[in-house]
Specification:
The chain is α/β, with parallel strands linked by helices and 278 residues long. It folds into two domains: 122 residues, Rossmann fold (3-Layer(aba) Sandwich), CATH 3.40.50.20; 133 residues, Cytidine Deaminase, domain 2. The protein contains nine helices and 13 strands. The strands form three sheets. A six-stranded mixed sheet has the order 6-13-11-9-7-8, with helices on both faces. A five-stranded parallel sheet has the order 3-2-1-4-5, sandwiched between helices. Strands 10-12 form a two-stranded parallel ribbon. α7 runs parallel beside α8.
């Protein structure tokens, strides 16, 4: 795998710090297929429980958002040297309703800014302090990454100026930690992702029936790929179809398309063109 630590020993035990969605499910499957052992630390109550219950009880730990000491204790208990973050933690849980333990409270008080990037960055430092290396979140997911050029079979007839505007704007809002996605139509940015997330972005423009609109998703400038990797999956595709958005542009090598083959097949059947850009 291009993003996995090159000297990762075969058969190494890896802790999967799992959030919600299909991302941790696919990641765990690929870790095992690569010849490694996997243990799971579930950090969100939306984790796929049917999947989680498939693991031996001794290979699973559950923590709530804000339980920093419990997370570190679980990593120590499993005796791992490597961990990987996969799956979403709802952004609102980082700012509302979180009950931090003493270690997390001290960590948060030391931060100059309180955004997802700074919080996850601080968590990564705490994990490193106990001798655990946090791997690139694209590790074991190479086959699911967006690639450059058309990824669906239909012939693209996309407005190149609008596409470039969307790419430039998406990168700028990502740099400012606002969001990672935009929708552009005929040279105008009609919607920008914010704290509410991608689904809200798409739902906002659905009522306008914007023929020829382009959805653009990118990584942040100098993205820390240990966490907060941009994801595109079936739910986003369904939302775009309902909103009548026909074009999707994803940053190649940096956006993970969950269940890629199925998503691309469904996109083609739905008349949605997906391409990757550098």
């Amino acid at each position: 795998m291009a993003f996995t630590r090159k000297n990762l020993p075969m058969g190494e035990r890896i802790a999967l710090i799992a959030g919600r969605g299909d991302y941790p499910v696919l990641c765990a499957k690929n870790i095992v297929a690569s010849g490694h052992d996997v243990v799971v630390i579930a950090v969100d109550d939306d984790v796929n429980m049917e999947w989680l219950n498939g693991f031996p009880a001794q290979n699973v730990a559950k923590v709530s958002v804000g339980q920093m000491s419990k997370l570190l204790k679980a990593l120590g208990h499993f005796g791992v040297k490597f961990a990987i973050m996969a799956g979403q933690v709802k952004p609102k849980k980082l700012f509302r309703g979180m009950l931090p333990d003493l270690k997390a409270l001290r960590m948060l008080m030391a931060l100059k800014e309180h955004n997802a990037e700074s919080i996850f960055g601080a968590i990564a430092k705490e994990i490193a302090n106990i001798g655990v290396e946090l791997l690139d979140a694209r590790s074991f997911m190479e086959e699911h990454l967006a690639i450059e050029g058309p990824m669906t079979s239909r012939k693209l007839e996309i407005n190149e100026k609008s596409l470039q505007l969307g790419i430039n704007t998406a990168r700028e809002i990502a740099r400012l930690n606002v969001g990672q996605s935009v929708i552009v139509h005929r040279g105008t940015i009609v919607a920008v992702e914010d704290f509410a997330g991608t689904d809200d972005l798409i739902n906002r423009i659905g009522k306008f029936n914007l023929k020829g609109a382009i959805f653009v998703k990118t990584a942040k400038y100098e993205q820390d790929f240990r966490f907060d990797v941009p994801i595109f999956g079936m739910q986003t595709l369904k939302n775009l179809h309902n909103a009548k958005v026909k074009y999707v542009a994803l940053e190649a090598k940096n956006v993970i398309i969950l269940d890629k083959n199925n998503v691309l097949d469904c996109a083609a059947k739905s008349g949605i063109d997906i391409l990757g850009f550098k």
